[in-house]
Every structure is written in structure tokens, then in C-alpha cells.
Amino acid sequence: MKKIWIHISIALICTVIGTCIYLYQANILFPVKPIHFEPEPQTLKSIDMLEPEEMLEDFAYLVEVIESVHPDPYHRIGKEEWIREKNALLERFKQPMRAADYYFALNELVVAVGDAHTVLWFDETDKGLPLCFDWVKEGLVIAEDHGLFKRGDLVLKIGNKQPDELLHDLSLMVAAENIYWVKNEAKTMLKKRSVLEQLGLLQNEQDETVLFSVERDGEVLELTSYFKEERTREDDENEILEDRHGWYIDKENDLALFYLKVCIDDEKFREDVEEFFHAVKDNHIQKVVIDVRENIGGNSGVIDAFLRQLPVDSYTAYGATIKYSKLAAERAGMRKTKGTSTHSPSTRRVKKVENPFKGDVFILTGNQTFSSGNWIAVIFYDNKLGTIVGEPTGNAPSSYGDVLRFQLPNTGFLLRVSYKYFTRPDPSNDPADALYPHITINKTRGDLINGTDPILDYFDSH
Q1: Topology (CATH level 3) of domain 235-460
Q2: What is the value of pTM for the model shown?
Q3: What is the pLDDT of residues 406-421, one digit of tens each?
Q4: Which of 124, 229, 312, 390 is deepest in the core (most CB within 10 A)?
């Protein structure tokens, strides 16, 4: 009897020790906290000259971070080509260079990773054109009236380049997984003085003007735009946060729409989703529309607030491959410093409400649908929970993400690098460079001029 108790005690001790080891390695027991990262303000100007020593040090740090943190930095161009591009850049950095030229040279290697989440930023507040652009079925257009420019003007040329040439050139500057994200980013980049200068589109560097050739009512017009002080990225982010989500009921068309521009899974958001679905039930609405056309990402957990309002007991969630490294361990707060771990797409239970919505669900997507916004659409698509309507999304359904932030030591350029690869719920739908809607509806030039939304108009007639 005594021996039995000894064996039981040993087994219990071993179990406890094994469990503690597992919890410790999983960073649950005595968890490692991430090192707080607060970037220094960027003071560098585009015209500032950089010495080779500064550039080579920053370049070495950038390469070290990307190669050690990213799950597969060579997946697009291959390791041999990656090495060739590195060596070519090393030669270019042996001579003094303007900060702007150095940034765009470094950015070539970052773009070569082929990951829209792995990005290099030069946050200088530069001058920009006071114009708004949009892409419609017919091509690149002016989106708002400004001076002699009119909403709906079809851009034939900027400087000496046609829109398709601009897209090609910008695809070498934009970290992207598809052309749709390049188009989305082009709407901002084509206003930036530094980008237009790099593309050789400045008409006159002294008075800083840009010449446009546009078509309006069958007539070709030559118009000039001048630079003014540009809004900062922080200004744009604050504007989004001020109107991050909202909803309305359209009883006439038996429709309720919830728009989500950024994914913030907080109490305010969850309460608003509940209020939205209460209004849906009170008004006996049979069509619910979740609009993520302008969603730039955030916390993917927001999807749970929607799913619990639907007759869904469970769904298949994303899988992930995690790349471990010393740098990632410091930034993310992980104990493991090497190797990878892979977690396949898995089933998750849903704690649904007592009286869930049983009507039709639609997800609206566009070229700006990105990151966690893309997740929402992909999860609904792969789990057959709703109909996707609109335009292709801005990143691939299976893609890299969960970024860590770094700052180059001399220039202060900000570097954001993915350390995970996420696999969509239904991998049999891959390969895909974007989530393509069940029902594709492209905005036209006429829609822009008339101020109509063809995607919402679709529901008026269905």
C-alpha cells in the first residue's frame, strides 16, 4: 500500500512539474512582459544629407530585424535575389545621399518582402497636393472639387505618366500583396511631394507645380496643381477614430447597416453592436449589412460581437505560424527565442444570444478593407455565414501580420515587421491575392459625379 502511495505521489509531482514547465514555456507562468517601445520624434528632412557610415548602420539594422523577425522574408523573390538586392544597395550607400533618396532605396528591399504589414515609414510632414483621388471603373479620377479641378475629372496623365504607368511605379514603392492595396495607397501617395519628385513628376522644382491632363465632358484640359502643407498621418488616424463605427436602420428597404472603419474591441463597440441588433429585431429587419469597405484593421476580436448575434454555434477561425526570435521575444513579450510553431485553423464556440438574428447577412468590402477588416470578411466567406458584396479587398486572405515596431538608429525611420503568418479558415480557397466578393460592384465615374453609392443601391433593387 505504501509503495502505491509513493508511486501516486511521484506521478503527481511529475505532473505538477510538467505542467509548470509547459506553462512557463508558454509564457503563462511568470510571464515575460514586452519591452515598451516609444519611438523618438523624427527630425530628419528629405533634403538632409546622410553619410555612408550612417546609412550602412541603419541598413544593417533593418536587414537584421527583417531577417530575424519575419516568418519568410524571401517568399516573394527568393533568397538569392534578396542577397543580390542587398549587395546592390550596399554599393549605393557608399556615397552620401539625401534622406529622401535613402528612404526610397531602403524601401525597395522592404517592398520586396511582399507583405503589406511589413512597412518602412519616413514620417516627415512634407508638402502635398490639395487634391483628392479615387479609382473607379474608368480609371483614376479627381474625387472632390478644388479650384479648376472638378469631381469626376478623368486623369489622363500626371506629368508625363499615364495612370497605368503610375500604378506600375507605385507597385515598387508600396508594400502590398495585390494591386488593389497599391491603388488604395496611391490615393494618398500621389499627393505627396516626395513621392511625386521620386517619380519625376514635378513640372518645375523651383515653384513646385504638377501638371495634370484630364478629360471632362469629352474635352481634354491641361491643369496645374500647387503644393501646400500636408496633413500628418496622425491627423488622418484621429479623424478615423472620431467616426470609428456607427449604424442606421432603413425600414423602407428592410435593411440595417453597421459600418466599421477600425476594429477596436472595447465596451463601447460591444454595446453599440447589441443596440444595433436590438433595433434590427424591434423593426423586424431581414437584411443586416456590415460595411468594412473603409476598415484599416485593428483587433480581430471584434468579430465575436457580431457572431454571437447570429444563429451560429461554432465557426472555423484563422490558423497561425509564429516565428520566434530574440527581437520578437523582447518586443512581444515571449519566452521562446528561436524556432517556429504552427497552429492550424480551429473550431471556436460562439456564446450566442438567446434570440439571434436569422435573416440575411451581407459584408461590404473594398480595396481599403485591410488586416482585421479583411479577417471579418474572410471568416464570413469561408464559414458561409454571409454574402460578400463590393470590390476585392486590400490584402490576401492568408497573409502575414501581427506586427512589431522598430526604429532605425540614425535616420529614425520607423520599421514595422510581421512575425506571424495567418492561414485562412478554409485553406482550400487558397491561393488568393485578395478576397473577391460573391457579388462584385465597381463604382463608376458617374456614381462619383452624382454622389451615389452603387453598392448600397444594389440593396434598393434586391
Answers
A1: 2-enoyl-CoA Hydratase; Chain A, domain 1 (3.90.226)
A2: 0.92
A3: 999 999 999 999 999 9
A4: 390
